[in-house]
């Protein structure tokens, strides 16, 4: 009988020996590779934490202990060990298992995590709550070296280190976030990895002194100053101990026996502890080990070859990458900035061709936005390429550092709208709402890939803050006959009509076109407008529509409140419009995980849903 078949609840692994745990780790690798090859998902990161996760469950009791996984995409083994093994084939599917921790899915998922650098803050809050309630359980945060580059992690380390609160932080160091780690912290961790001599020598000195009869403990205490001097000599900085943490490591994150010994030791230490583990992303699957960036988040693939099953279409990220390279060849003021996402945002080619004008700042969106402002202030044209859901983290910087000063920073917002299987924490459905309220900011969105190229070329020529938002993936099977010149605040009329008007934004223009063709087929006099500028609105065209359109429908892949439809409502109210207005958008709720097609259909934003909403409201 395979060991995996015996694991149905968290404490089941406590009945296994260390050797059996090693055998179980092999079975889990096979299970993960087989499942994710069919469902897609975050493979490389999960292959890298199998032994670490087993050791955590072997030592701790998560019926009462708490664990917070940073980012959370590496929790697949955690989910398997906590009773979700039999449902794992539904991973990331609509109404199936989420790819991230989700307390509504399981009581063992103690905190929602989808963005990075939050785990230490959340765990410290839980530890302080435990102390206030007079409880005794352990609280553990697991954070990767990539997530540790985020400023919020340092804020939490600073507070936790001075708190004296019992807290265990596990630094899972695989030298990667999604792409290769960058910055001084990565260099610092490299020094620690290459200097294990101090760790071994320190333990030997401690054991030797404590064995001396009668005076051993006193000698050990008097040796503390010597030990402090030694650690500064052997491992430069010892940042974590200076912050107030007891540092244990670096240790082999794939050696279950060593891991369990260190975790048991950490439980006995008073105050905050940091355990530095070294792991390999993609461990056990050659293609993931060789290409961890590709297998960080992967679509369904062939196990034997590592090749994706579905052919990739031309994507918005790819077009963005091509256009910024083209522009940078003629303009040496163009700067590209990313927050640990050069591959995902399409900047790999730029980074290779113009390394002196490319900055990967790590997982630090706030810093990226303000650094872009500094570059713009000195005459450069910075482009910050960032996912919609991660730009939320730099909201204040966009207001305070970019827009107040009217600095010519381009916010290139990838993955706007729904992204599908990653779910609530990653859906980019708030950007229109949180950006539209900011003065001095121009916001635009292309109807398709062709217009996207024209828009980017227009953006590079402007001298004010710009946000250009575009979806994940590519286009529908639809072609447009016309592409008007891009002019500030001017929309594009795609179909002519007089009674019913559809005002659509971005990719929703494609969905609306399909709906409008059906409506025309029923003899409905419908007009379709490509509202390429969300801010400023085309008030001239709106004034014209007010005079002749009885029904106005707005369509956007953003939440209903505060978005494009709200902007139209505000203007029409100011003009005392007497016709009917219907806003088609995502409702006031977080959008779950599932395929993009299913989610569009569920929320009435597919062509059929738009068509049905219009028919219902004009009959």
Quick overview:
With 619 residues, the protein is of the alpha/beta class.
Question: What does this protein look like?
Answer:
There is one protein chain. By secondary structure, this protein is an alpha/beta fold. It contains 25 helices and 17 strands. The chain has a seven-stranded mixed beta sheet with strand order 7-6-8-9-11-10-15, with helices on both faces. Strands 1-2-3-5-4 form a five-stranded parallel beta sheet, sandwiched between helices. It has a five-stranded mixed beta sheet with strand order 12-14-13-16-17, sandwiched between helices. Helix 15 links the parallel strand 6 and strand 7. The N and C termini lie far apart (64 Å).
In terms of DSSP E residues, the strand content is 5-15%
Given the C-alpha coordinates, what overall shape results?
globular
Structural class assignment: alpha/beta
Helix count from the secondary structure assignment = 25
Largest sheet: 7 strands, mixed
Rounded to the nearest angstrom, the distance between the terminal CA atoms is: 64 Å
Strand arrangement in the largest pleated sheet? 7-6-8-9-11-10-15
Cα-atom radius of gyration: 27 Å
Determine the mean pLDDT. Answer: 90
**Which consecutive residue ranges, at least 5 long each, have pLDDT under 50?**
219-237
How many individual β-strands?
A: 17
Percent helix range: 40-55%
